[in-house]
């Protein structure tokens, strides 16, 4: 009988291993050929490894192969001698001796993937993402995105939250409205989850504090720079809150920790993307009503929509708070009942408003949150006042009927946050394989 | 201007804090009332906190409230005196002095949630999951599931894998067949992803080693104890493999680490669920063809389906290997081409078989994996031989055309693994809100 033990050592020398080698040491490593500079008897080969580029030097007299044996995007294993060189990425280069070709492409890529910036329209870049993600800058965007997720997760774990994974095929929409994808489910009507709202509230009754990082589906019929029809939602929900400000505090703590994780583990990507992380010592908090008036006064604008913030207003709020208070983040609180979902708790001090908030970052809403109704009668009454039939929400209302602690939470759009971190202008820049009204591939 | 700093201290005393208190110390903590035992002037209140139960003692003469002020599932904050007691859960109880009611249920739950085992059919239990998950044993199942996910993630992170999140609305199915949910996507036909197969392979060309833990949708028309129509897939894919055994080794390593994490962080849940983790020092590996014959000989069976394993055969293989080789896990390798998808690499030594494997655990397949075709012409030819039109897979085939390292990976069903860990019999036991042909709620 043959056995596996799972204890085999990794066979490849990673960049971190190679960096530790002495000048003149032998190195063997694999990767994909990022670029080749062939100058006859001499040349350079840049190897793309999983987390960095490695510069290799080809000298015909010392090498047992020809540069013409390889092309870009070939998968190869090379053997050679390490030379320390401060000008090379990561401080070393490999002088090539032997080559083993593991796989050759059938054709050369239609674009040069090794340019520092690809220099193509976003539309073209996205259409060719299976290839363009191989560009060192492009892939750094999504490595950094991993770091953002890791930062949030670490924070919530440390704070005693339970990670949950809730169904994406659901019997009814949590956010109401027409922005919902329908599907046929064995002859029954079903929907794709617009948010994990009902489930995360339900699980507060079980685990007290929960978070979920997963796909969210919105059938919104506008193709804008800020909308995706499928995105990654970072959702949390906490029980036993004293006030909705507890949620705001938790988000601030989570963002701070996330930035620490990026500095700790994603320095390489921050440098490639030329990102300076925003200052987040303290974040101002201002009421919806007040900030509307502040912006109207400061920028001499008329208030057109008294119930919501227009995208232009979000930009002006960020501008105002960056200039006056030195903060690129602003919590706007107490949104009108009219624009908030049926589960939002009204402000007892002014029931036209809710105990809710949005977080704006560099001119864009990246989070929506607030306290939820936990009392059964209050929730049923509010459903009715919003034109909903409580009978449609029977399993959701179980939690209100049989007992829930005061609670609240938030949902954050991962791509929006990442896009703004990079100072981008289109959310598709931060979505690997974006889904919008006209795009289903790749 | 008001500011938030995210640095507020947690206000609640967790069980771990309470355990550290001296006998006689004052304690203040919140939770939901799990059970009440009212014996007149004396009684017990069990408080359900996020990760454990706390026993509280009510003595009328020392308490500033009546036991009738609360009911089960009320959310309360209690103040009292800690008494060390080895018989109480976690070694202490709280002698109650003050009570603050944070929220009262409207009605009492139709079932007693605080029983050690709920004692109802799985069907009833699942229908009432918003409540039944509040049972201490039921919630332990899903806390443990978090630990399983955490274990895998820690392993893959440590090994240099990148965590990815790929689209769930897709233009075509990765696994073929009719087991796919269709939806209308702005007038175009779209599908729910049957697996992240195409995307994870694509991202091997970018990050070399990737993993994804996310929802998977299968429109399978059988309501069995082993099928779910939506489940959590644990997927990984690695580049630069020497052989498909590299993937098997990686899975073995991941399982070992996962068990370590369960022992390290989920001891409480292992005890509640009475789980003894299986021995996993080494896992036997046997060829499909050979194991078929072994089982036929050992149990005097006829081989009915030469191309796949029947569920009963999977059970017998596990029985055989547990008895003869002391292993509850078995890797079965080299499945027939006929039953493996179009991206599976054929075995060069016998092209009727593939370089693939399943992992069986306690009588059930929990993982499918193998080496993938990386060569463009080979992949196109195999698509055609399987009756597929390569033109339907244009963006997928970009990676083969423009270069891919030898690679492979696996997909594991989280609920199946968890169900078998608990020695369960129905996969719904390990799915919080299962989706099957007849179930869309809760």
Which short descriptors sum up this protein?
elongated, 17 strands, five-stranded mixed barrel, alpha+beta, 2 domains, eight-stranded mixed sheet, BirA Bifunctional Protein, domain 2, 442 residues, 26% strand, OB fold (Dihydrolipoamide Acetyltransferase, E2P), homodimer
Written description of the protein model:
The structure is a homodimer of 442-residue chains. With 442 residues, the first copy, chain A, is an alpha+beta fold. Chain A folds into 2 domains: 89 residues, Beta Barrel (OB fold (Dihydrolipoamide Acetyltransferase, E2P)), CATH 2.40.50.140; 295 residues, BirA Bifunctional Protein, domain 2 (2-Layer Sandwich), CATH 3.30.930.10. Chain A contains 12 helices and 17 strands. In chain A, the strands form 3 sheets. The first copy, chain A, has an 8-stranded mixed sheet, with helices on both faces. In chain A, β15 and β16 form a beta hairpin. The two termini of chain A are 44 Å apart. At the A-B interface, β1, α4, β7, β8 and β9 of A face β1, α4, β7, β8 and β9 of B. β13 of chain A pairs antiparallel with β1 of chain B, so a sheet runs across the interface.
């Amino acid at each position: 009988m043959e056995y596996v033990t799972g204890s085999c050592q990794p066979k490849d020398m990673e960049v971190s291993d190679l960096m530790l080698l002495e000048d003149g040491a032998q190195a063997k490593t694999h990767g994909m050929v990022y670029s080749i500079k062939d100058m006859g008897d001499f040349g350079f080969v840049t190897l793309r490894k999983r987390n960095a580029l490695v510069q290799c030097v080809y000298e015909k007299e010392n090498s047992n192969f020809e540069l013409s044996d390889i092309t870009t995007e070939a998968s190869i294993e090379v053997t050679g001698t390490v030379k320390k060189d401060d000008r090379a990425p990561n401080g070393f280069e490999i002088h090539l001796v032997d080559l083993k070709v593991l796989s050759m492409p059938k054709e050369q890529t239609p674009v040069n993937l090794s340019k520092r910036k690809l220099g193509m329209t976003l539309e073209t870049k996205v259409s060719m993402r299976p290839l363009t993600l191989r560009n060192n800058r492009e892939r750094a965007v999504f490595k950094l995105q991993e770091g953002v997720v890791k930062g949030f997760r670490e924070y919530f774990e440390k704070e005693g939250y339970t990670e949950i994974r809730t169904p994406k095929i659901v019997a009814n929409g949590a956010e109401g409205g027409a922005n919902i994808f329908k599907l046929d489910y064995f002859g029954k009507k079903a929907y794709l989850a617009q948010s994990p709202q009902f489930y995360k509230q339900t699980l507060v009754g079980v685990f007290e504090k929960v978070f979920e990082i997963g796909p969210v589906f919105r059938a919104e019929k506008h193709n804008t720079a800020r909308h995706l029809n499928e995105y990654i939602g970072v959702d949390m929900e906490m029980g036993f809150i004293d006030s909705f400000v507890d949620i705001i505090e938790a988000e601030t703590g989570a963002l701070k920790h996330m930035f620490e994780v990026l500095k700790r583990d994603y320095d390489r990507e921050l440098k490639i993307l030329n990102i300076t992380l925003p200052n987040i010592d303290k974040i101002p908090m201002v009421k919806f009503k007040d900030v509307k008036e502040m912006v109207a006064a400061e920028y001499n604008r008329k208030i057109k929509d008294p119930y919501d913030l227009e995208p232009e207003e979000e930009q002006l709020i960020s501008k105002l708070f960056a200039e006056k208070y030195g903060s690129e983040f602003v919590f706007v609180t107490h949104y009108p009942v009219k624009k908030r979902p049926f589960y939002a708790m009204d402000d007892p001090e002014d029931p036209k408003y809710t105990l809710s908030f949005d977080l704006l970052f560099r001119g864009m809403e990246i989070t929506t949150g607030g306290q939820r109704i936990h009392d059964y009668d209050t929730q049923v009454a509010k459903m009715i006042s919003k034109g909903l039939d409580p009978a449609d929400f029977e399993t959701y209302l179980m939690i209100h009927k049989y007992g829930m602690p005061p609670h609240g939470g938030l949902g954050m759009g991962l791509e929006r946050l990442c896009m703004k971190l990079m100072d981008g202008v289109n959310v598709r820049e931060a979505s690997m394989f974006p889904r919008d009204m006209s795009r289903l591939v790749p």
